[in-house]
Amino acid sequence: VMLWNLQKARPLWTTNLQECGSDEDSLQSAGQLFNPPLAHSLSVASCGNIFGCGAQDGKVRIFRVTGLKFERELEFKGHSLGVSQVLFMPESYWLLTGGNDGKVLLWDVSNDIGKQHKSPAKSLHKRKGQTAATARKDGKLNKVASNEHARILPKLTIEHGEKVNWITCTEIKGSRRVLVADQSSSISVYPLPES
């Protein structure tokens, strides 16, 4: 994953997802070779300095852009096969992921982003206000421990059944929907919970 300076057409920072692996991933026996987790999809959150990356190993990695580099904020696995699509929604750090396993998952990572690093004051104040409002409206939000190895659970699981090639979120007749494209000639439409 590379951060580019488009004016000078050169990369400013590069992160190899293989080097971002957790301790579990690095416990390889001698003579055993694993393919590196290839990045399949990226999405930038509305704040502009957080992005999510879906990879071939079924993991989602969340990074924060800090100046001319980026640091890993969070890593979790929800798909049994590669994560083909990630999409940050306009809400406070809600993330849609689509996988080669035929699932579409909705994640609320707002409680887990920013625990290790302070955001700019304006962004932090806005995020705290939105998180508090979300928690009041939906008492069923997942509670996650603050350590990195805690299991993050999806807020919603959609069993699409086919490899997900593309996802987006839109409003249709006053209700939020996720649109999913696979290898067929049809677009599937699923309802999303209200925030």
UniProtKB/TrEMBL annotation:
Pfam families: WD40. Transmembrane segments: none annotated. PROSITE patterns: WD_REPEATS_1 (PS00678), WD_REPEATS_2 (PS50082), WD_REPEATS_REGION (PS50294). InterPro entries: WD40/YVTN_repeat-like_dom_sf, WD40_repeat_CS, WD40_repeat_dom_sf, WD40_rpt, WDR53. WD repeats lie at residues 76-111. Residues 117-137 are annotated as: Disordered. Keywords: Repeat, WD repeat. The keyword Repeat applies. SUPFAM superfamilies: WD40 repeat-like (SSF50978). Residues 117-129 have a biased composition (Basic residues). This is WD repeat domain 53.
